[in-house]
Specification:
12 strands; 14 helices; 2 domains; Ubiquitin-like (UB roll); single chain; Rossmann fold; three-stranded mixed beta sheet; alpha/beta
């Protein structure tokens, strides 16, 4: 189970620069629209100091962190939902991700062309939101047109059509106004019905304010605009200097990166904050397995039971689950060894109903 993030925004806002810094992999970046047509994909480790501490206390041959997949999607423009600027191809890529990272330009630089020739975050955000909403509107209208036929397909079809009609009608009304699907107050059951639609505007969204180095010192008016919009939507807004992050990622060692951050007055990189925020926004958490051969971080959904967490490792673990030996990483950090954790009675045997906690260290017993 991984975290899949799509980086979206207008052309020339810094998406590819931020992607390259995240993945330390070159992404095509140039001062003209549509330089990125096919999406670049990069796998990034989730920063987690707990895994480093576990390795210090339980030496191992191999260390495997949790990972995030980032997809650098080409810049959208007005009319993308109608196919402008290769928009249909770009929108298809966006439907495949789990969360949107919306990069907004919050810096002024006459040498970097803006697609509308003016720096206006509110207008930029509105352009993207409207295009994504119109793309979803097309899907909703097509499904509405098929409801009558569905309603004639027996009792089950009529039941499904009756359930979908009020949901799709409410969606059409909101999307017609350029409002995202996530702004509507759907029940848990209704959200399950909507999963098959793969609506872009139902996905959670994080705004990234891409600033110059001076913009990190205090919020400028451009950043304040993005923060206001994010707050109104119930979304997060993170301030990042893409150029600075690119410089940090180019350094060879952790020591050099930490020294650079310290000299820049930063506690951690903006990209680390972005990864952590995306992880938490999707309700994802981490449990660990630890031993002589491998220490590993595993991603699970908050609220998962022990068998469901076991299934993250292998479906056989879930199918044949018997019980789990569990203790929390904070117990290990306090007592300094797994043997002392056992001696202190901190290691527990948990069954199928146990709800896994973020930071649990687990060993599964199963039989298939």
């Amino acid at each position: 189970m991984g975290l899949n993030c799509g980086i979206v925004g207008l052309p020339n806002v810094g998406k590819s620069t931020i992607f390259s810094a995240l993945t330390s992999a070159p992404a095509e970046a140039a001062n003209y629209p549509f330089c990125t047509i096919d999406p670049n994909v990069g796998i990034v480790s989730v920063p987690d100091e707990r895994l480093n501490k576990i390795v210090e206390l339980i030496p191992t041959k191999k260390v495997i962190p949790a990972v995030v997949e980032f997809v650098d999607i080409a810049g959208l423009v007005r009319g993308a939902s109608k196919g402008e600027g290769l928009g249909n191809r770009f929108l298809a890529h966006i439907r495949e991700v789990g969360i949107l990272i919306h990069v907004v330009r919050c810096f002024v630089n006459d040498d970097i062309t803006h697609v509308d020739n003016v720096i206006n975050p509110e207008s930029d955000i509105e352009t993207i939101q409207i295009e994504l909403a119109f793309a979803d509107l097309d899907s909703v209208e097509k499904r509405l047109a098929k409801l009558d036929k569905l309603g004639r397909m027996g009792k089950e079809g009529a039941k499904q059509a009756a359930q979908l009609l009020p949901i799709l009608t409410a969606l059409k009304e909101a999307l017609d106004q350029g409002k995202p699907a996530r702004s509507l107050d759907f029940t848990k059951e209704q959200k399950l019905l909507l999963k098959e639609f793969h609506l872009i505007t139902m996905k959670p969204q994080i705004y990234v304010c891409n600033v110059d180095e001076n913009g990190l010192e205090e919020d400028n008016a451009l950043v304040q605009t993005v923060r206001r919009i994010a707050e109104e939507e119930g979304s997060h807004a993170i301030v990042i200097c893409g150029q600075l992050e690119a410089e940090i990622s180019s350094l060879e060692s952790d020591e050099e990166r930490n020294e650079f951050l310290h000299e820049s007055g930063l506690e951690e990189s903006g990209l680390n904050r972005l990864i952590k925020t995306a992880y938490e926004t999707l309700g994802l958490r981490t449990f660990f397995t630890a031993g002589a051969d491998e220490n590993r971080a595993w991603t699970f959904h908050e609220g998962n039971t022990a068998p469901q967490a076991a299934g993250v490792i292998h479906t056989d673990f879930q199918r044949g689950f018997i019980k789990a030996e569990v203790y929390h990483c904070t117990d290990l950090f306090e007592l300094n060894s797994e043997q002392k954790v056992k001696s202190a009675g901190k290691m527990r045997i948990e069954g199928k109903e146990y709800l896994v906690r973020d930071g649990d260290i687990m060993h599964f017993r199963f039989n298939v």
